[in-house]
Structure formats: C-alpha cells, structure tokens
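Continuing from the previous page...

OK, I double-checked the sequence for Energy-coupling factor transporter ATP-binding protein EcfA2 against my notes and this is the correct one:
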Amino acid sequence: MSFTYQAGTPFAGDGLKDVTTTIKDGSYTAIIGHTGSGKSTLLQHLNALLKPTTGTVTIGDRVITNETNNKNLKPIRQQVGMVFQFAENQLFEQTVAKDIAFGPENFGMASAEAEKQAAAMVDLVGLPQDVLEKSPFDLSGGQMRRVAIAGVLAMKPTVLVLDEPTAGLDPAGRNDMMKMFQRLHEKQGMTIVLVTHQMDDVADYADHVLVMDEGHLIKEGTPREIFQNEQWLENHQLGLPKTAAMARDLTKQGFRFDPLPLTTDELADQLAKQIGGGAHD
Ligand SMILES: Nc1ncnc2c1ncn2[C@@H]1O[C@H](COP(=O)(O)OP(=O)(O)OP(=O)(O)O)[C@@H](O)[C@H]1O
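Thanks. Re-ran it with the corrected sequence; updated structure tokens here:
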C-alpha cells in the first residue's frame, strides 16, 4: 500500500510508499526508523484511522481500501487498540473510573458493567483501586499514562498498538511500563506493535522488526537479523542496543562474541564463558 497526505491537493506529500508486510497474530513487532520515516503513518493504518491511498490493508478478515466506508470500521477500532504518544493528554473525564469506562460505554456497554470493567483495568495496568474515584489530573504523569492505557485495554482489543509509549518517563517508569506490555503479550496473548527509538527495547522485547526510511519499508526480520550490521544501521541513522555496543567495545580488549549479544543476559553468559565461568560457577 501507499499513502499520500492531502492527496490531490497542491500540499500532497508522501507518507508511505509501496509498503508490503504482514504483522503476525501473537507477535511482538517493533517499528523503527529515524524521524519522519513513516512509523506513525503506518501505525494509523493498523486500525484504519488512515486509509491507504492505493493498495489494501487487511486486518483480520477485513480489507480496507481508499473506498472503504467509515461506517464499517467500528469493529476494527475495538479489535486494534491504539495508544498514541503522550496518551495522557487525551484524558478528560472527572474521575479515572469514568475515563476508562468511556470507550466501552460508547460501544454500548451498560454503565455499571463499564465501571466494573474500569476497576479490572486499573489492576491490569498496575494502579491501586483508590485511583478510580480520583480526578485523572491529580495523578502523576506516569499514572495518567497508565489510566489512558487502561481506557484502551477496556475495549478488549486483541492487538495493542503503541507509539513511543515510554517517551518522557523516567528509567524506572519506562522499565515498569515495558514489563506491563510484556505481561499483556505473554499472559493474554496480545499482539503488540511498538514504535520506538529505544533499540534496547527492540532487543529485549520484540520478535520481529520493521525498519522504515523515507516512507519505505527497507528491512524486516528478527532483532538479531536487524542488528547484525552496524554500518548499515549507522547509514540509516539507527544504533545498536547498548548491550551490543558494549560487547563490540569489549572486542577491542580481546573478547570475542558470536553472535553479538543483544541482551544483558546474553552478554553475561558469553562473558562468563570467556573469563572462566565467573558468577555462573
Ligand atoms: N498530518 C500530516 N500532513 C502532512 N504530512 C504529514 C502529516 N503527518 C506526517 N506527515 C509527513 O509524513 C512523513 C512521515 O511522517 P511520520 O509522522 O509517519 O514519521 P515518523 O517516523 O512517525 O516520525 P517521528 O519519529 O518523528 O514520529 C513525514 O515526511 C511527515 O512530514
């Protein structure tokens, strides 16, 4: 598919060009690429917020083209939950419970049922029950973002699409949030699609990676395949995960790594072997 912003006007601009790919059910897919490469534009096609200018997007058994009627898109919006950058900016209700219940109620769920659902979602995102009656605006930034995510999860999506979900959080908050998505992926079998500039998160969590550049999908594969060629990454303004960069630096001191470790566990294992067992003895 291809997508042109403001197609047919003098302001037309390419967003995506000839992108062909499949995001598998149950996968944890990361989308990387430098600023303006088309990541957010691609995400918005995953729940038909944008429709392809040419070509098709197939979500489950629904085929979206430029001609698809907006009326037919509601089930897709329920199935594919979208967490935008700085999702907390979209909170607006008087209480956390009402904010989380807003989506399900809008989709026809009875109010009492939706509030029960809100209580369950607060648990799922790791917030205490007493936030339910608070104003979302009295919470910390990290808590507000969790409330926004709870509102998306309340729709019971099978796919969770995340656009830089940890931007602006401190390291501990980032780590907690990434662990939360990992739990949803592992325990509930959710398909996760993550746009990120954090190569460490790609190495730690993703099983598949799409690399975007100037609206094109220029490479896809496992994290190991994507991170195997540092020069190629540099040419596309991308870096190595910190662990891999550290291992590469250690090769200058005589250490040998094959393959280059992508996670701290892999680095520790390979180092232990080379320094006589180390902590593993
Ligand atoms: N609403 C818009 N109208 C016109 N052009 C747009 C619009 N949004 C994005 N674009 C253009 O489409 C291209 C892809 O942008 P997109 O936001 O998808 O990139 P991105 O990879 O998500 O960038 P970032 O990492 O900065 O979020 C860019 O050239 C951008 O300028």
